[in-house]
Write a structure and sequence with these properties.
The chain is α/β, with parallel strands linked by helices. The chain is 34% helix and 20% strand.
Length: 167
């Protein structure tokens, strides 16, 4: 009987030690952002300070858009992208006072309907002019662009940008 009691106490102590080490590991991973996969961000070719490439495109309203008049927020969405469908309504409702341009690649009438009344919208192929100018290969992707057509910030979420009160 004393051996059984000692074994139960030993197993209890090992379990408590295992739990403490696991909690310490989780805390450390959260500190480095590894526990949240969305925290690392998408692979963005243009980072802060990068100049946007030259392009010309036409919005769904027939308005010409080019690098020369690019300023504010630019977001890339693609057909069949579930995170894009989550981000699009927030991007459309966003009230920052900054001009917004959305780029939808592929055929997705639902995304177009959500975005087109609220923002300038370009619908293009995956390797379209605007996507090529940003060297963008990931969606959703959001960029904050200054008046010099340089990227101020980029990421996969509105929270990655230094903007006020994302909707």
């Amino acid at each position: 009987m004393p051996y059984l009691t000692a074994a139960v106490v030993l197993i209890g102590l090992l379990s408590a030690l295992n739990l403490a080490l696991t909690l310490a590991l989780i805390r450390r991973l959260r500190g480095h952002g590894a526990a949240e996969p969305g925290h690392a961000g998408p692979p963005m070719a243009l980072g802060p300070g990068s100049r946007v490439g030259d392009f010309t495109a036409t919005t769904t309203e027939g308005e010409a858009v080019s690098r020369a008049d690019l300023l504010g927020l630019v977001a890339f969405f693609s057909a069949g992208c579930a995170p894009c469908h989550e981000l699009a309504p927030r991007f459309a409702r966003l009230e920052t006072g900054l001009p917004r341009l959305a780029v939808v690649s592929g055929d997705d009438p639902e995304l177009v309907a959500v975005l087109s009344p609220a923002v300038r919208l370009v619908v293009e192929d995956h390797d379209g002019a605007v996507s090529s100018a940003f060297q963008n290969t990931w969606t959703p992707a959001v960029y904050l662009v200054d008046g010099g057509q340089r990227v101020v910030a980029a990421g996969g979420r509105l929270e990655d940008l230094p903007i006020e009160s994302p909707a």
